[in-house]
């Protein structure tokens, strides 16, 4: 049984709400157990959404982050590339710059936090910001001498329901994390706090979609509810 109480988690989220969609249940499970949790957002800007105006401002979305951070009791969070010059445009930022930010140039970089667990988006997401983030994390965590660079023992890619839209399916996740009812409830509550990004069903960010995916992954592990991950490194 993996002991989450001894872990220091660093989550890479391309945008606010990706961390909840991908690993919101695990974040509650780990924090409740006693883990440290840090979230590195890459970018946020004005965003088209379901509000009466049809968009939410970056400042409004930062307000949502603060509410979610308080809900989860994160140890810290930070936005690396704020503003519309970067939001939904990370694929135009040199990969070297994003990788260096994740590796050592951010206050919540791998070098600064020295996490035991890094959780990032999957490289097969259709979203260009998610792809750029995933590739940058792969570069930042490249194999090297552990005496010179920090190597997290566990590196995971989280899934979102829309990831399967790509024609290069990632296959079934190879690591399942069981969620208790409190863990799943915390995930739903956090998603509601991202009010500008919630949608009614059918939508990839509806509550029913999150519940359905959790039930499916739970069934695959013989439990009521779970989140699925792709283990990229597990140094036991």
Automatic annotation (TrEMBL):
SUPFAM superfamilies: LmbE-like
One term of GO molecular function: hydrolase activity
Enzyme class per UniProt: hydrolase
Record-listed E.C. numbers: 3.5.1.-
InterPro entries, alphabetized: GlcNAc_PI_deacetylase-related (IPR003737), LmbE-like_dom_sf (IPR024078)
Keyword vocabulary terms for this entry: Hydrolase, Zinc
Protein name, entry field: PIG-L deacetylase family protein
Originating organism: Streptomonospora algeriensis
């Amino acid at each position: 049984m993996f002991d989450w109480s001894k872990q220091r988690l660093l989550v890479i989220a391309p945008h606010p709400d990706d961390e909840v969609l991908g690993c919101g249940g695990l974040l509650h499970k780990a924090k409740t157990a006693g883990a440290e949790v840090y979230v590195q957002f890459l970018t946020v800007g004005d965003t088209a959404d379901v509000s009466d105006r049809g968009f939410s401002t970056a400042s409004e979305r930062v307000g949502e982050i603060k509410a979610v951070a308080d809900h989860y009791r994160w140890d810290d969070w930070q936005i690396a590339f704020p503003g519309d010059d970067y939001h939904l445009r990370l694929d135009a930022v040199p990969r070297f710059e994003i990788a260096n930010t994740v590796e050592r140039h951010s206050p919540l970089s791998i070098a600064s936090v020295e996490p035991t667990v890094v959780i990032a988006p999957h490289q097969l997401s259709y979203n260009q910001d998610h792809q750029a983030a995933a590739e940058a994390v792969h570069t930042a965590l490249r194999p090297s001498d552990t005496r010179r660079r920090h190597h997290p023992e566990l590196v995971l890619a989280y899934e979102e329901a829309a990831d399967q839209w790509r024609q290069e399916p990632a296959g079934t996740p190879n690591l399942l994390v069981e969620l208790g009812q409190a863990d799943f409830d915390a995930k739903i509550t956090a998603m509601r706090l991202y009010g500008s990004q919630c949608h009614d069903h059918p939508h990839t960010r509806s509550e029913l979609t999150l519940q359905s995916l959790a039930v499916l992954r739970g069934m695959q592990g013989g439990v009521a509810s779970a989140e699925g991950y792709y283990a990229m490194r597990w140094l036991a």
